[in-house]
Amino acid sequence: MLSCRDKYSYIDLGERDQANPLKWDKITPADYEIWDGYLDYDKTVANSKKRMASNPQIKLIEENAKWLKSEQDETEISLNYVTYKEEKEKDKEQSDYFKNLSDYDSKLTFESLKYEQELFTQDSVLREKRDRWHKSLAKDVYVEEAVNVLEDLKMNNLKNLKLASSVKN
User: Fold this and answer.
1) What distance lies between CA 37 and its chain's CA centroid?
2) Cα first-last separation, the chain
């Protein structure tokens, strides 16, 4: 559906990226029928892709991913102290530039379910974990876009319901 890049997109992680990974089993997919209840589904996907392509935070994440990959692929270090120091200073500048990634705020707010909120009186650690998680979610551009997609789908579904009711009348 949507292709999203993150800072790990270009980095070889995990066993599958090793020279001799273990074989893995493929789970047979479940039988299902595609639900065709949304109006303008393709338009919703296109709108999301357009928002993502023009989002400066997404561009910064992509840039960061490429930089991390280039740093991972770097296998030579200059023995010339001046050159080495210049390279390290350049790396520090790049690293500082990407610190802006953690400053992002989607302005979304999150709260725990009622049953969890009741547990907070007995478990302050749980409250602390949820608070950190909610702050993390608010800084996640992909969560923000998921909310936008759901909003688009909801609006399209409402249009679909209005269209169906006008046909009946």
Assistant:
1) 26
2) 36
Residue 120, number of CB atoms within 10 A of its CB? 15
Distance of CA 151 to the CA centre of its chain: 17
pLDDT per position as a tens digit, 107-154: 999 999 999 999 999 999 999 999 999 999 999 999 999 999 999 988
CA angle 60, 96, 3 (to 5 degrees): 20
Cα distance between residue 103 and residue 10, in whole Å: 23
Hey, what are 45's tokens? 């996907």
In Å, what is the CA distance from 65 to each residue of 1, 4, 16, 72, 139?
21, 12, 19, 11, 17
Q: What is the pTM of this model?
A: 0.70
